[in-house]
Write a structure and sequence with these properties.
Helices cover 18% and strands 39% of the residues. With 208 residues, it is of the alpha+beta class. A 5-stranded mixed β-sheet has the order 7-4-9-8-11, sandwiched between helices. Strands 1-2-3 form a 3-stranded antiparallel β-sheet, with no helix packed on it.
Length: 208
Amino acid sequence: MGFQDTPEEWQVTATETPFTGNKTSVRTDEVVMPDGTVVRRDYQVHPGSVAVLALDDDGRVVVLRQYRHPVRHKLWEIPAGLLDVPGENPLHAAQRELYEEAYVKAEDWRVLTDVYTTPGGCDEAVRIFLARNLSEAEGERFEVSEEEADMELARVPLQELVRGVLAGELHNNCLVVGVLSLAAVLAGDGIESLRPAEAPWPARPFEA
């Protein structure tokens, strides 16, 4: 199989859902360990997400600054959003999020990387896309509300974001993974080596 993650599922003898929220829930499973003991595991059940590292012709990344209440910070992030519809095509969701949050469209899309954000306590899977050949979107701007009504937009050189990540100044998971992945790609095999935008995603299967 090589050096890669592999799917596996240990026996679950019982399960319950003590909390159900608007978009996510909490599940408790009783899981059989390799020595035969049974332990309880609590975790958040999440629909999955997409994120977009949008790179313009000047080597700048589209970022936004948004308040995140659980960590009591305004974080610089890349456009991202939930996969609200089961089986939704992640590329279509990413294109929607780039339009809604940054009023930008892109002609060239590729998969940058796929991650589990916090696999010890949540099943959230995120697909991060690289979007290039940017232009202003057409049509009416999406009407924002709540935290998004206070968002700031900027375009920041990739290397400045890399510096901020390594200096401990930028903390958003998708931004950190996205900018470091792109820096590695540019220093390595190049953007043409990336997977196509419709590449399979076993963590969140979808129809093309």
